[in-house]
Write a structure and sequence with these properties.
7-stranded mixed sheet, 32% helix, Aconitase, Domain 2, 4 domains, Aconitase, domain 3, 29 helices
Length: 762
């Protein structure tokens, strides 16, 4: 089904693979008559061409990218625009779309949800943007319908910003990277590796895009095969997939930890643009005659079976056939893994879902940018025709990804077919993807065609003893399970026929409801500020030395951004930096906020030219040890704050709040063995936090220890390869080493200034 090449590979004429070995050059010469040079062949990928077109540095090894368009949703756009405003924003320099698909439905009551929306609308008017009201479309569906373009690049403040199937290289990053684009700065990265995803064969009946995506994720996530690289989809199998099918695979590439994705394009994609009234945006994209890739994932589509990703990660994959055949063993293994994910805080069970030898689930959901596409829902309707989901615990909710998709489902009768079964159709909303909608009952098991199944993404609250779990599946198998009244069933068991539904896009919906400035800013517009919308607090520059208290120590193999700052109802406070910060690590380490705020007392005293030891006597021993190491260290040159250790933090969401919430609570740094994603590390840097790396092995410090980092400012300025640090206090001065990894000159300046706002402040 999935094969990973150990080394690189050449692709000839877009169809034939040649493994990169000692015989490769001669083989290519025999087939093409050309003498191939690997470095030149690497320039023949689709990805290289698009990156070259958008690079402003003149050096393809050190890219400085300017994007064609930007997009954000309402969890992030207030913070982004507030940051840009503090830095002198006068006009959006490129098209910028503000969607409202993460609205929290007033989860905490009051007006704060709609206040954010009015802020977005007035900013779109004032600075020349586009505003998509709530329930009209989820962010990525609107981008597919209205923003994507062949050979273009789009930057979004959501991790699933992926439009590669449409010939658009898109990236999901934290808000500060969008701020840079709004200020006419660049996105700076080293030239990424490019990995071919070579598709061959054709999916069998009942297999959908989520099945293919989960099979790939399961094969590449744990080994980091595509981490921070571009996935380029090529091969004869591409033409066997519809546009919607390709889109459904593409959006899930985020879960591989790749940087971005791009696909070869053809008449199927041309038709997509034609249908949406944007024919001019189509561009045929193909790799050159001989293209070199840094790796290759071979996917035989004909061998992909219906898949399931068990809690609590999209890479925890099995075929449904395998799960059903080894039910108790796999469920037992999942329960054991949950002990790690949930720290044993609750009694988590899955084996109690087995009824008469079959797995029973309580909830099915088809939603969002992954599941809410036209073809997915039509296929589900076909499977459920004349069926009933039954009157028992099992429920089914379907969220079309946009109003145009919803309207077409109404017109072609699929909406009625679904409703007749007992399913509920809802409007475009990302709630089931981030824990703000359709929360299951305690200990319930939900199957979802959505993007993620991390702990708490379903909306349960571990700290209150409430836990439900999510498995990821394709809409087709969710529908087959629903037809079987909640007993897990792969869609390949469906013996009926799938209809050929033609999609018609009605742009009048958006013309009648979406605000589009056409790029014209109106300075006279006054921005509407709700009472919960707060400015970022002042942040100080990096000091000569740092004294840090370790206030959380996390040893999970991977720590997600949802654990660093929970999603769901906490997102109601997204526009209030200090209010949101109260939820930092609340579901992973409830002690974190209190500990961070306590040590912050010392820093606030220092900034007010008061004695930090008197304000926070706990640091006295550490302060004394610090002075013994560096006699001239004092309150004028030594910042005091907190840090956390995590083995591999940052998988998941692009939300910058995972970093900014630590920052506003006095965080100066993270310490990790490695960072799961570029976007989380970038968020740390843009908020002035040091992305320390420590070698794997026994830690020289433990939670609640103090760490002194002398000369850190000089080390950043002089690009020191190794940074000396000390565990201090309680009679110890234990030396150890940290590194910072590669930093651009601009990133060093941002850290030195204290954050991106300070770097750009006017």
């Amino acid at each position: 089904m999935i094969q990973l090449l150990e080394g690189g590979a050449y692709l000839l004429n877009g169809t034939e693979l040649v493994a990169d070995n000692s015989e490769a050059v001669a083989a290519i010469k025999a087939k093409t008559g050309k003498d191939v040079v690997k470095e030149e062949a690497a320039k023949e990928t689709i990805a290289y061409g698009i990156l070259a077109d958008h690079n402003t540095s003149g050096n393809m090894e050190k890219l400085k990218i300017k994007f064609d368009k930007l997009t954000s949703h309402d969890i992030t756009f207030v913070g982004i625009i507030q940051t840009a405003r503090a830095s002198g924003l006068t006009k959006f320099p490129v098209p910028y779309v503000l969607t409202n698909c993460h609205n929290s439905l007033c989860a905490v009551g009051g007006t704060i949800n709609e206040d954010d929306h009015m802020y977005g609308l007035t900013c779109a008017k004032k600075y020349g943007g586009v505003y998509v009201p709530p329930h009209q479309a989820v962010i990525h569906q609107f981008a597919r319908e209205m923003l994507a373009g062949g050979g273009k690049m789009i930057l979004g403040s959501d991790s699933h910003t992926r439009y590669g199937a449409l010939g658009t290289m898109a990236m999901g990053e934290g808000g500060p990277e969008l701020v840079k684009q709004l200020l006419n700065q660049t996105y700076d990265i080293n030239m990424p590796g490019v990995v071919a995803v070579y598709l061959e064969g054709e999916p069998v009946k009942g297999v959908g895009p989520q099945d293919v995506a989960l099979a790939i994720i399961g094969a590449v996530f744990k080994n980091g095969y595509v981490k921070n690289k571009v996935m380029e989809f090529v091969g004869p199998g591409v033409s066997k997939l519809s546009a919607d099918f390709r889109i459904g695979i593409d959006v899930m590439t985020t879960e591989t930890t790749c940087l971005s994705s791009i696909w070869q394009t053809d008449d199927e994609i041309k038709e997509f643009y034609d249908v949406h009234g944007r024919s001019a945006e189509y561009k045929e994209l193909n790799p050159g005659q001989v293209a070199y890739y840094d790796g290759c994932i071979k996917v035989d589509l004909s061998k992909v079976k219906p898949m399931i990703a068990m809690p609590f990660h999209p890479s925890n994959t099995y075929t449904i056939e395998e799960l059903n055949a080894n039910l108790m063993d796999i469920l037992d293994d999942c329960e054991k893994k949950a002990l790690v994910s949930l720290d044993g805080a609750v009694d988590f069970k899955l084996k109690d879902k087995v009824r008469n030898g079959k797995l029973y689930v309580e909830q099915g959901i088809i939603a969002g940018c992954a599941g809410g596409g036209f073809e997915n829902i039509c296929a589900a309707a076909d499977i459920l025709t004349n069926a009933s989901i039954g009157p028992d615990e099992f429920t089914l909710s379907v969220y079309p990804a946009s109003m145009p998709v919803y309207m077409e489902l109404v017109k072609n009768g699929c909406a009625a077919k679904l409703m007749q079964t007992g399913a509920v159709l809802k409007t475009a909303f990302c709630g089931p993807c981030f824990g703000a909608g359709d929360t299951p009952a305690n200990n319930a098991f939900s199957i979802r065609h959505s993007t993620r199944n991390f702990p708490n993404r379903e909306g349960s609250k571990l700290q209150n003893g409430q836990i439900a779990s999510v498995a990821l599946m394709d809409a087709r198998s969710i529908a087959a399970t629903a037809a079987n009244k909640g007993f897990l069933t792969p869609a390949t068991e469906f013996d009926g026929d799938f209809s050929k539904y033609k999609y018609f896009f009605d742009k009048k919906i958006y013309e009648n409801r979406v605000f589009d400035s056409k790029g014209v800013a109106d300075e006279s517009v006054e921005i509407k500020f709700g009472p919960n919308i707060k400015d970022w607090p002042a942040m100080v520059a990096l000091t000569d030395n740092l004294l840090l208290k370790v206030v959380s120590e996390i040893h999970d193999p991977v720590t997600t951004t949802d654990e660093l700052i929970p999603s769901g109802e906490t997102s109601s406070f997204r526009s209030n930096p200090l209010g949101l910060a109260e939820f930092t690590l609340s579901r992973k380490d409830p002690n974190y906020v209190g500990l961070a705020k306590e040590v912050q007392k010392a820093e606030k005293a220092r900034e007010e030219q008061c004695c930090p030891v008197e304000s926070f006597p706990e640091i006295e021993d550490a302060w004394k040890a610090m002075k013994e190491i560096t006699p001239d260290a004092d309150r004028n040159n030594t910042g005091i704050g907190s840090t956390i250790f995590a083995v591999k933090p940052g998988d998941g969401s692009a939300r910058e709040q995972a970093a900014s919430c630590q920052k506003v609570l006095g965080g100066w740094a993270n310490i990790a063995n490695e960072y799961a994603t570029k976007r989380y590390r970038s968020n740390l840097i843009n908020w002035g936090m040091l992305p320390f790396i420590i070698k794997e092995g026994e830690l020289p410090f433990k939670n609640l220890d103090y760490i002194f980092v002398p000369g850190i400012k000089k080390a950043v300025e002089e690009k020191a390869s190794v940074i000396k640090a000390y565990v201090v206090g309680n009679g110890q001065k234990k030396e150890f080493e940290l590194t910072l990894g590669e930093l651009t000159d601009e990133e060093r300046q941002i850290i030195l200034k204290g954050c991106l706002i300070n770097y750009n402040r006017v």
